[in-house]
Amino acid sequence: FDRRVFNFAPGPATLPEEVLKQAAAEMLNWNGLGMGVMEVSHRGKPFMACYEEAIADLRELMNIPDSYAVLFLQGGAIGENAAIPMNLMPLAKNGPKADFIVTGIWTEKSAKEAAKYGQAHIAATSAATGFNSIPDQKDWQLSDDAAYVHICSNETVGGVEFQNVPKVAKPLVADVSSNILSRVWDINDFGVLFGGAQKNIGPAGLSIVVVRKDLLGHAMPITPMVWDWAKQAENDSMLNTPPTYGIYLAGLVFKWLKRQGGVAAMEQQNIAKSNLLYDCIDSSSLFTSKVDKNCRSRMNVTFYLNDESLNDAFVEGAAKLGLMNIKGHKSVGGMRASIYNAMPIAGVKALVEYMKEFERGC
Ligand code: PMP
After folding, report:
1. Are residues 177 and 288 in the same domain?
2. Is 104 in the pocket of ligand 1 (CB under 6 A)?
3. Which of 121, 298, 307, 341 has the fewest CB atoms below 10 angstroms from its CB?
4. Does ligand 1 have an atom closer than 6 angstroms to the CB of 206?
């Protein structure tokens, strides 16, 4: 291609063009230092200012109160799947334990990892329906003695998203990797939010943890120092070298989000974009969504062709038009269009046009 395409990849994913242009322009000489941001000390004044501004902008965008710490770490969401039980399970009153609401492969993985550190109690699961729904909260078998309740706010593979943050008595721990900053949340509803940056924020290698401060300082003695949130909070996430380039780029994305009108404005865009696609799917006799209407993801729109033998032709035809990476995850098949904040509505319109055209040709 001699132009940018519309990249529907689930993550690493498309980034705002403006941000990439700025990063390119500053690559060799950042802030007049005569060197790039990747080349400067993480503890020096210029980088510390960049780090602090990124944290402040994220706090502003998500309305994060002072009673929460914001950490910029490494290890991805998968790393946090181990860090979470190590940091929080000691809060359980009868030995290490947590409750899991399993709505897809990501929460399945979280529970499996947590089981290495304590009891990972499956309080509810939608496995029986092929992870196309979210179990009704009144049916959750929450335990009295769990330290926390773990959910995934948006299951990236299945395309299943909580439309409201559930209210639970215990601290709610949410994997927000694939829908952070895409909708307005009340942070007070969470104990911990965590996720990798490579979908809605920036490059892979940066993970973000937002944790209520009273949950800090209870980590198991075996917790590796870099994943002890209290220690990281005391050290401005700099117990070791943080992912500096990822933090810088995330900072540029936060500024971009502020210019777009913040999270509320993004949410309106995301509603509009996802409605375009779901309306197309629902009015078609070729495409189907398997996900319950009340939990369809605005970020990862999964759908199937009724005639699966057309899958390859559909994907190839899309790629010819520069509509890339719409093939579904291998574990579920079908198609998936990931339409994070940085996907312009023009990309979704182009995909919808193509879907209609393809169906007409069948
Ligand atoms: N949780 C969710 C919801 C994800 O989508 C992903 C990545 N696709 C992960 C966890 C794993 O994240 P990472 O690769 O950053 O460890």
Report:
1. no
2. no
3. 307
4. no
Peptide bond into 12 cis (omega under 30): yes
Is 120 within the bounds of a domain? yes
Both 224 and 294 in one domain: the answer is: no
The CATH number covering residue 297 comes to 3.90.1150.10
The answer, as to whether pTM is greater than 0.80, is yes
- Do 308 and 246 lie in one domain? The reply is no
211 phi-psi bin (left φ>0, alpha ψ -120 to 50, beta other): beta
For residue 165, the SS3 value is coil
Instruction: Give the count of domains, the chain.
Output: 2
Asked if 255 is an active-site residue, the reply is no
Regarding the beta carbon of 300 and ligand 1, being less than 6 Å apart is answered no
pLDDT of residue 362: 87
Q: Which of 213, 239, 259 is the last residue of a domain?
A: 259
Digit-coded pLDDT (tens) for 16-65: 999 999 999 999 999 999 999 999 999 999 999 999 999 999 999 999 99
Asked if 302 contacts 158 with a C-beta cutoff of 8 angstroms, the reply is yes
**Model pLDDT for residues 136-193, shown as the tens digit of each residue:** 999 999 999 999 999 999 999 999 999 999 999 999 999 999 999 999 999 999 999 9
Handedness of CA 343, 151, 336, 109 (dihedral sign): positive
Q: Which of 106, 112, 198, 299 to mutate to test the pocket of ligand 1 (most atoms within 8 A of CB)?
A: 106
Is 106 labeled as catalytic in the residue annotation? yes
Whether residue 340 has its Cβ less than 6 Å from ligand 1: no
Report the residue among 151, 178, 332 best suited for mutation to probe ligand 1: largest number of ligand atoms under 8 A from its CB. 178
Q: Is 185 annotated as a binding residue?
A: no
Are 172 and 248 members of one domain? yes
Q: H helices of 16-145, where?
A: 17-26, 45-62, 76-88, 105-114
Residues 281, 250 share a domain:
no
Contact 228, 219 (CB under 8 A): yes
Task: Render 314-361 in DSSP notation, one character per residue.
Answer: HHHHHHHTTEE--BPPTTT-SEEEE--TTS-HHHHHHHHHHHHHHHHT
Q: Which domain holds residue 152?
A: 21-259
Question: Among the three residues 241, 259, 277, which one is the final residue of a domain in this structure?
Answer: 259
